[in-house]
Amino acid sequence: MNSNKVIYIMGVSGCGKSTIGQMLAKRFKIPFFDGDDFHPQSNIDKMSSGLPLNDADRLGWLQTLNELAKTELQKSSCVIVCSALKESYRTLLSKGVEDQTAWVHLVGSYNQIVERLNKRENHFMDSSLLQSQFDTLENPSNALEINIGLTPEEIVDKITKDIKMKSEFGLFGLGVMGKSLSRNLAQKGFNISVFNREVKGTEEDVAIHFKNSHKELDSAQAFSDIQGFVNSLQTPRRIMLMVNAGKITDYVIEDLIPFLSEGDILIDGGNSNYIKTKERYDYLKSKNIHFIGVGVSGGEQGALKGPSIMPGGNKEIYNLVKPYLESIAAKDDNNLPCCTYIGEEGSGHFVKMVHNGIEYVEMQLLAEVFTILKTMGKTPDEVADILESWKPKADSYLLGITVDILRKKDGNDWLINKIVDKAGNKGTGNWTTIAAAQLGAPSTLIASALFARYTSFYKDERLQASINLNINPSILNLEIEDVCNAYQFARIINHYQGLKLISEAGKSYGWHLNLSEIARIWTNGCIIKSDFMVELIPVLKEDDNILKNKLIINRVKALKPSINKVVSECVLKELTAPCLSESVNFLNAYATANSSANIIQAQRDYFGAHTYQRTDDNSGKFHHTNWN
Ligand SMILES: NC(=O)C1=CN([C@@H]2O[C@H](COP(=O)(O)OP(=O)(O)OC[C@H]3O[C@@H](n4cnc5c(N)ncnc54)[C@H](OP(=O)(O)O)[C@@H]3O)[C@@H](O)[C@H]2O)C=CC1
Ligand SMILES: O=C(CO)[C@H](O)[C@H](O)COP(=O)(O)O
Question: What is the ipTM of this complex?
Answer without folding.
Answer: 0.98
